[in-house]
Design a protein that fits this description.
There is one protein chain. The chain has about 180 residues and is mainly α. The protein has a domain at about 50-145: Multidrug-efflux Transporter Regulator, Chain: A, Domain 2 (Orthogonal Bundle), CATH 1.10.1660.10. The chain contains 4 helices and 4 strands; from the N terminus they run ββααββαα. The strands form 2 sheets. The protein has a two-stranded antiparallel ribbon. Strands 3-4 form a two-stranded antiparallel sheet. Helix 1 (about 50-55) packs across helix 3 (about 85-100). The chain is elongated, with a radius of gyration of 36 Å. About 10% of the residues are buried.
Length: about 180
Amino acid sequence: MDGNGGSIGVGLGGALPGSRAGGGPGGPGAARGPARAAYQLTEHTPVYVISVAAQLSGLHPQTLRQYDRLGLVSPDRTAGRGRRYSARDIEQLREVQRLSQEDGINLAGIKRIIELENQVTALQARVAELQGEVASAGITATQREAAVHASYRRDLVPYSTAQQSSALVVWRPKRRGE
C-alpha cells in the first residue's frame, strides 16, 4: 500500500507497469513485445506468509494458526495450502489482540464481535444498494410521468365553468290536485 490507503500497481513478473523486465530500451526485454498486464495490490490482496504476518502483527505464528482454526482471521490459501495474509488480515489480527489484551474479551466474544461487524458492513452495503435502486426508480417514474404528460393532445381547449350568479331560485313543487 502507498501509506494513504490506496493501492500500488505492480506488473506481473516483478516489473512495474510500463517498464520492461529487461531494463532500459534495447535491453534483453526489448524484443518481447508489449509489457505484461498490471494488477492492483490492495489491502485485501494476500501477499504475506505466516512468518511475516506474525512479525507484522506482533503475534507468534502458532497464535495465527490458532486464530485461523477458530475462524477469527481466515487468510487465503495457496495451491499448496500455505496461508497468505493480506494487510486487512494483519489489521484484524491486531484488533483481535487489542480486544483480548486491553479489553479482556475472550476469543468466543471476539469471534461474535467480528461476525456482527461483518454483518453490519454487509447490511450497510445492502442499504446503499437499495437506496441506489430507489433513486433510480424515482428517476424512471419521473421520466415516465413526463412522457405521459408529453403525450397529451394539444388541440384540446380547457373547459372553464360559467360564472356563478348570486340569483336565488325558489322551487315550489306543485301540489296534487292543482
